[in-house]
Each structure stands twice: as structure tokens, then as C-alpha cells.
Inverse folding.
């Protein structure tokens, strides 16, 4: 069964450094999302992406964040200058939308900013 | 604005008991979707079910059942004859039917099934 994959599973970085989190959505899905979950808290929407552009973003998704689909399979989230409060689990998700709006999530990348 | 409330932060039951997880939502949209996701200790988010706002028919899948009541804006999840493997955090979520369809999650309910 197709699944969303994410790399790396765990990333440790120093404050102020740039990180890129990578995702490979399910191949016939067209809608892509990033969410984050701070430890022990609820899952929060960051950004949605369709047709090579952002369709919606949250207040969390400020100028330090960017997303890109560099090729036909990868979907990346870049944090330009990490802060301590960016430490969280980051989930990528994808959906077919019209044929089923449910979003399927990757296993997540745990980002630790020190 | 959309909002999902899961008032039960933690529930602990003994194996084989039935347990119901509550979910109440708020939205101004006339069409929307409701979801339940399971987050086991390993951390991934597993899709369980989706209901459309225009379909209030309850659903049963094995030991799992879902009760959607538009009149009370609730979408409750019941596990019958619970098993230890059901131990997880369960999230209820809501999305608009149009637009980006971002998921708005509740706080989650941590369910512990004790042997």
C-alpha cells in the first residue's frame, strides 16, 4: 500500500541554522500539507500546497518557513533560521482530495533545536 | 473559525471494556468533513474514518463505531471490547469541504487500555 515517507526521522540542529525536511507524498496525490506537533500537544496546520503554489498557510508559517516541490516526487519544508520553539514533530500529509479528502500522514520528522 | 474540542484528556479502562471518546466541533461551513486519527506510541498519525457533513449515518467497522450528530455538533467514537493495542492518542479533526481543506485537530484523548 502506498505511503507517505519522510526524511530524516530525527534532526538535531543548533539555533540559527537552516534545516530542510523532506517528504515524498503518495504518487497520485495532488494536495500536500505540513503540520507540526509540539511534544504532548495537538497537531497544528502549517501550510497547504497545490499546483506548485501555497494554497493556504497559518500564522505559524512566517517568513522563516518555505515549501517547495523541487521535482515530481519530493515536497520539502525549509526553516531558514531555526529557533528553540521550532522544536517539534513535523508531519507531511497528502490527499487526493476530490476522490477522498482524507489526508495520509508520513511518520514525521522530530526536529530538536538546541 | 473552526474549532474541535475533545474534553477528555485521558481515559483509562480495563481490557474488554467499552469506551467512548467524545468530539464536539464548531464551524460556520454548511459542508465539511470530520475525521478520526489514531496516534500510537510510535508517533505516526493513522487515518481511521471520514464522515461528510451531509451524511449522518453512523458507521461500524469491527470493534469501532462512530456516531455523528449534526444537531449536537458531535462526532463520537466508541471502541467495544477494548484491547491493549487500542492504547493510543486519538484525535478528532475537522476540515472545510472547499478551499485548502486544512485539518483542524482537537487536543486529543490519550486512551490507555490496561490488561
Amino acid at each position: 500500500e502506498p505511503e507517505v515517507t519522510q526524511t530524516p526521522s530525527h534532526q538535531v540542529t543548533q539555533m540559527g541554522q537552516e534545516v530542510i525536511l523532506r517528504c515524498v507524498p503518495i504518487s497520485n496525490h495532488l494536495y500536500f500539507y505540513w503540520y507540526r506537533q509540539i511534544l504532548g500537544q495537538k497537531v497544528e496546520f502549517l501550510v497547504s500546497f497545490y499546483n506548485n503554489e501555497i494554497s493556504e498557510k497559518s500564522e505559524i508559517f512566517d517568513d522563516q518557513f518555505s515549501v517547495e516541490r523541487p521535482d515530481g516526487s519530493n515536497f520539502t519544508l525549509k526553516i531558514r533560521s531555526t529557533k528553540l520553539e521550532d522544536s517539534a514533530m513535523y508531519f507531511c500529509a497528502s490527499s487526493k482530495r476530490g476522490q477522498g479528502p482524507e489526508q495520509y500522514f508520513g511518520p514525521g520528522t522530530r526536529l530538536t533545536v538546541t | 473559525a473552526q474549532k474541535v474540542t475533545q474534553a477528555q484528556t485521558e481515559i483509562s479502562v480495563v481490557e474488554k471494556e467499552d469506551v467512548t471518546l467524545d468530539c464536539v466541533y464548531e464551524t460556520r461551513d454548511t459542508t465539511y468533513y470530520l475525521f478520526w486519527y489514531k496516534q500510537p506510541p510510535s508517533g505516526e498519525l493513522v487515518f481511521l474514518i471520514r464522515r461528510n457533513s451531509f451524511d449522518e449515518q453512523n458507521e461500524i467497522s469491527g470493534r469501532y463505531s462512530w456516531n455523528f450528530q449534526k444537531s449536537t455538533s458531535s462526532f463520537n467514537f466508541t471502541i467495544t471490547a477494548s484491547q491493549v493495542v487500542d492504547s493510543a492518542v486519538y484525535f478528532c479533526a475537522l476540515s472545510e469541504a472547499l478551499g485548502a481543506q486544512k485539518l483542524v485537530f482537537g487536543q486529543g484523548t490519550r486512551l490507555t487500555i490496561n490488561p
Q: What stands out?
A: Chain A has no helices and eleven strands. Chain A touches chain B at residues 31, 33, 35, 41-45, 48, 50, 55-56, 58, 89, 91, 93, 95, 97, 100-108 (CB under 8 Å).
